[in-house]
């Protein structure tokens, strides 16, 4: 976005200023004296910042910078074969997308298995994070976490941290793991996840001094067998140090477990009412009466029909079926 202390310029003037770029969206907020401009991609945005930041417009200096966002996610542990078109299809299911892209190796040109998506609205991003966290895609279990827009620079989008998955649980000696991941470069951080009961989990986070070191080690160690287990090594989201990354992954796994526990919510009254169309459910609700329990007659009820009010049906159901007098 760009800001001018006396911003009263018309929309056309903004379009003229950015005539060398492909504008996807442009809006002038006269109250905030700010214009919001969405360009084709990040490269164009960076170029525009270099060209127009502290540029003189109508004799006034303007400020041009990336728009702060609270709707940016990093999706990790994606299948390496996933194309950008497939990634776009995956993330667009949860709302309008401002931009999305996969991160590719500068050495090989291949996908690193993670990408970024920025949504138009924060509630779309929140929905995507909830739905994508733990989602199975081919043989991969996805992770999704909030990111700072300042991470979206050429240097910072490449991760220094690796997630080592499929480890032997409750492995009391991590020396073999550390040795294996120190053959090429010495890590600055290497630690197993801790279960809630204090035991070691089945994954670890390893951090290196540079993204290049992390990429080299991942290429060498992914698929290697240690203690009879074939390791799965993937990149973590970039930006945070290893210790913080480990804490975030542990929290994400707990959230996934809690989500699975809540897959069968308590039925609401409307669902209970609809269940009366099911003969088996009706039979269950009538069990006390069919077993011969004495029931007081109901005013206006048919003598040939059992009393259908049962303790299994709570007050909300009774209120929904209350007949106006």
From TrEMBL:
<feature type="domain" description="RRM">
    <location>
        <begin position="71"/>
        <end position="149"/>
    </location>
</feature>
<feature type="domain" description="RRM">
    <location>
        <begin position="160"/>
        <end position="238"/>
    </location>
</feature>
<keyword id="KW-0694">RNA-binding</keyword>
<dbReference type="Pfam" id="PF00076">
    <property type="entry name" value="RRM_1"/>
</dbReference>
<dbReference type="GO" id="GO:0003729">
    <property type="term" value="F:mRNA binding"/>
</dbReference>
<dbReference type="InterPro" id="IPR012677">
    <property type="entry name" value="Nucleotide-bd_a/b_plait_sf"/>
</dbReference>
<dbReference type="InterPro" id="IPR050502">
    <property type="entry name" value="Euk_RNA-bind_prot"/>
</dbReference>
<protein>
    <submittedName>
        <fullName>RAVR2 protein</fullName>
    </submittedName>
</protein>
<dbReference type="InterPro" id="IPR000504">
    <property type="entry name" value="RRM_dom"/>
</dbReference>
<dbReference type="GO" id="GO:0005634">
    <property type="term" value="C:nucleus"/>
</dbReference>
<dbReference type="InterPro" id="IPR035979">
    <property type="entry name" value="RBD_domain_sf"/>
</dbReference>
């Amino acid at each position: 976005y760009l800001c001018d202390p006396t911003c009263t310029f018309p929309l056309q003037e903004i379009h003229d200023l950015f005539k060398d770029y492909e504008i996807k969206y442009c809006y002038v907020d006269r109250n905030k004296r700010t214009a919001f401009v969405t360009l084709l991609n990040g490269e164009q945005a960076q170029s525009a910042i270099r060209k127009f930041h502290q540029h003189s417009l109508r004799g006034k200096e303007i400020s041009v910078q990336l728009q702060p966002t609270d709707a940016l996610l990093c999706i990790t542990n994606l299948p390496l074969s996933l194309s950008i078109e497939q990634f776009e299809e995956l993330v667009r299911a949860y709302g309008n997308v401002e931009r999305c892209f996969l991160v590719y190796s500068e050495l090989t040109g291949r996908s690193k298995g993670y990408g970024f998506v920025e949504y138009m609205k924060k509630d779309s991003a929140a929905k995507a994070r909830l739905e994508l966290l733990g989602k199975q895609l081919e043989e991969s279990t996805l992770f999704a976490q909030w990111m700072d827009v300042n991470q979206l620079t050429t240097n910072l989008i490449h991760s220094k941290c690796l997630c080592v998955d499929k480890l032997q649980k409750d492995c009391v000696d991590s020396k073999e793991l550390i040795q294996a991941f120190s053959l090429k470069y010495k890590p600055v951080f290497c630690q197993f996840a801790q279960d809630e009961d204090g035991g070691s989990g089945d994954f670890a986070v390893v951090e290196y001094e540079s993204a290049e070191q992390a990429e080299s080690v991942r290429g060498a160690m992914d698929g290697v067998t240690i203690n009879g287990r074939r390791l799965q090594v993937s990149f973590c989201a970039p930006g945070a140090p290893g210790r913080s990354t480990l804490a975030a992954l542990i929290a994400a796994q707990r959230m996934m477990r809690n989500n699975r526990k809540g897959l069968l919510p308590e039925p609401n009254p409307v669902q209970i009412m609809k269940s009366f169309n099911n003969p088996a459910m009706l039979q269950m609700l009538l069990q006390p009466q069919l077993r011969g329990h004495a029931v007081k007659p109901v005013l206006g009820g048919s003598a040939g029909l059992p009393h259908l009010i049962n303790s299994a049906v709570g007050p909300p159901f009774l209120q929904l079926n209350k007949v106006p007098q």
